[in-house]
DNA sequence: ATAGAAACAGAAATCATTACTGTTTTTAAA
DNA sequence: TTTAAAAACAGTAATGATTTCTGTTTCTAT
């Protein structure tokens, strides 16, 4: 993977904006500094970076994929009302869970994503 | 929700084919019995049925949404090589996990989806 | 320097999914 | 039973996210 100014900018944008931006949001932010960047470049690099393990791609129900600059093991909570994604601010105890999953004969588990859903504090206040 | 022959057929197809079919796969199966059914009808009903809690819609990375006729609490394993989705044949112990997530101030948790990924037995054999 | 590989911008294409339109089916009440 | 309103349908068009294509520019390792 060769260096490119665009890729660095895309990477920094995701890491410095911990709002779990979609490709389109990254594109909007990045264009302020790099007006001619193309949306295809944003998609290509977000995918490359997440394949390399430098970003995490998060797949959400009924919404565009979004990206997370945190790559340590952590999980997410989706507010089904406003659509925002939050990092859970603690480490879940997954050892037992992984042990159970690993016991399924023949499988080789390489990872696990956990997505809680519900209402965030703000949306909860409004209902 | 009124009765319709098409909806019943779509529902039965998902329940009787525990392969986690996509809308397109359901469409292909259903067309054998109902040649003029339209893809829009399949999508509409799969969404209705999962909103009603009669089916579960599963959102996967880099793939179409798929559907599961099992609606008890259970979780999935995605083979990153062949793309197949498997039901985990046991109940994970999520009480502790939910307690932790519920402790995040202000949030109201209504559900949780867990997706393991890795290699299934068959794909593992080939590598 | 320079040549080959990688990356780019911009545009077109693809794929999954949803929305629209006019017709048929269902349902509940007259 | 009719019948009228609501719901659902088929078929098609539209949308939105994402990927692919093409010709040009930028990196990088000699």
Rg of chain A (C-alpha, Å) = 17 Å
Overall pLDDT level of chain A: 92
Of all chain pairs, the largest interface belongs to: A-B, 40 and 40 residues
- List unreliable stretches of 5+ residues of chain A: none
Number of helices of chain A: 5
Please trace the helix and strand order of chain A, writing H or E for each element: HHHEEEEHEH
The helix content of chain A is: 25-40%
Q: Structural class of the secondary elements of chain A?
A: alpha+beta
Cα distance spanning the termini of chain A? 49 Å
- What would the principal axes of the Cα set say about the shape of chain A? flat
Order of strands in the sheet with the most strands of chain A? 4-3-5
Number of strands of chain A: 5
- Give the strand content of chain A: 15-25%
Task: Report the oligomer.
Answer: homodimer
How would a crystallographer describe the biggest sheet of chain A? 3 strands, mixed
Describe what you observe in this structure.
2 copies of one chain form a homodimer. Chain A has 5 helices and 5 strands; from the N terminus they run H-H-H-E-E-E-E-H-E-H. The first copy, chain A, is an alpha+beta fold. Chain A is flat and about 50 Å long. The model of chain A has no long low-confidence stretch (mean pLDDT 92). Chains A and B meet through helix 4, strand 5 and helix 5 of A and helix 4, strand 5 and helix 5 of B. Strand 5 (108-119) of chain A pairs antiparallel with strand 5 of chain B. The structure holds a DNA duplex (30 and 30 nucleotides).
